[in-house]
Amino acid sequence: PTSDDTPEVLNRALSNLSSRWKNWWVRGILTLAMITFFFIIIYLGPMVLMMIVMCVQIKCFHEIITIGYNVYHSYDLPWFRTLSWYFLLCVNYFFYGETVTDYFFTLVQREEPLRILSKYHRFISFALYLTGFCMFVLSLVKKHYRLQFYMFGWTHVTLLIVVTQSHLIIHNLFEGMIWFIVPISCVICNDIMAYMFGFFFGRTPLIKLSPKKTWEGFIGGFFATVLFGLLLSYVMSGYRCFTCPVEFNNDTNSFTVDCEPSELFQLQEYTVPAVLQSALGWKTVRMYPFQIHSIALSTFASLIGPFGGFFASGFKRAFKIKDFANTIPGHGGIMDRFDCQYLMATFVNVYIASFIRGPNPSKLIQQFLTLRPDQQLHIFNTLKAHLVDKGML
């Protein structure tokens, strides 16, 4: 789209400015509005955040699929728009069902309908997908075979990029809101600071895919994001509502975010490297262990995260479009704002699984209690024999 989508109020207010500064103010005002909205949904809690992630995912899917329809002129393909949304429904049913079973096992086992759905979840998911697959085969038309398979592949790649990674965002959220907020905020900070440094100091082009990106913006954004990540992590690590995982409380029949803080979120004393002691004047420093992890998160957001944006830029150039949509004036579509977030979500999920998360005793006990008495007794005897051999009993 090439039309000006800036609200008329802003157009009148900024009419005396050059196009460069007008774009700067439009982007700035809309960015502040989006950050304000982000704060509001954080205040509303993890369940609302989960629903917002799903809404964003659906909108991103819609934007990419619409580009496919426009590029391949596939408006007249029988059933294909319906099938695309049907496959989105199937994949979401599979992923959200897996998440609910994994994180809220007690709730699922207590409710008979949920227990049945959980037990046969993967079979039901496969049956739903298979139905869509058969519908696609039956919808094939002689004159449109190649086009229909183009769009079938387009839909599945979109599902892989958008739905799978938004599911990982939900997983990060349930590990504790801090694992959701800090990475997303680091990407936002890097995006803003790279734009600011590039706008005022940018001279050296960074990559041909994005001619406006500069080395000055890239480097300035990196240092600003690492510092921001350290400060934000320090503030958030002191609040249980951010650091505790989301769990279901059987006594209150509600989802709770309350726990004893783990070692990650307890202040520790660290020795400052000798090289920095003379410069800082400190021999030791008290900080949360999570702040050290935040350096890894902010570094990824600054150095690798932008490649999600470069990937999106290459995609848009391949199909000769400026933005994915006109949803946000001055910014483009929702996918234009979340191209780096999806890559970041995957990294955070892998990082947690590799360096943070260990076996969860409460989940193991919950699963143990659902076994038959003879199976429970067998596990008990095996565990007892193991502890006796270790000299612990």
Automatic annotation (TrEMBL):
GO biological process, one term: CDP-diacylglycerol biosynthetic process
Main location per the UniProt record: membrane
Entry GO MF terms: phosphatidate cytidylyltransferase activity
Reactions mediated catalytically: 1-octadecanoyl-2-(9Z,12Z-octadecadienoyl)-sn-glycero-3-phosphate + CTP + H(+) = 1-octadecanoyl-2-(9Z,12Z-octadecadienoyl)-sn-glycero-3-cytidine-5'-diphosphate + diphosphate; a 1,2-diacyl-sn-glycero-3-phosphate + CTP + H(+) = a CDP-1,2-diacyl-sn-glycerol + diphosphate; 1,2-di-(5Z,8Z,11Z,14Z)-eicosatetraenoyl-sn-glycero-3-phosphate + CTP + H(+) = 1,2-di-(5Z,8Z,11Z,14Z-eicosatetraenoyl)-sn-glycero-3-cytidine-5'-diphosphate + diphosphate; 1-hexadecanoyl-2-(5Z,8Z,11Z,14Z-eicosatetraenoyl)-sn-glycero-3-phosphate + CTP + H(+) = 1-hexadecanoyl-2-(5Z,8Z,11Z,14Z-eicosatetraenoyl)-sn-glycero-3-cytidine-5'-diphosphate + diphosphate
Cellular localization per UniProt: Membrane
Topology with respect to the bilayer: Multi-pass membrane protein
Highest rank taxon of the organism: Eukaryota
EC category: transferase
Keyword Glycoprotein: no
Cross-referenced Pfam families: CTP_transf_1
Enzyme Commission (EC) number: 2.7.7.41
GO annotations of cellular component type: endoplasmic reticulum membrane
Keyword field: Lipid biosynthesis, Lipid metabolism, Membrane, Nucleotidyltransferase, Phospholipid biosynthesis, Phospholipid metabolism, Transferase, Transmembrane, Transmembrane helix
UniProt similarity note: Belongs to the CDS family.
Name of protein: Phosphatidate cytidylyltransferase
Pathway assigned to this chain's UniProt record: Phospholipid metabolism; CDP-diacylglycerol biosynthesis; CDP-diacylglycerol from sn-glycerol 3-phosphate: step 3/3; Lipid metabolism
Alphabetized InterPro entries for the sequence: PC_trans (IPR000374), PC_Trfase_euk (IPR016720)
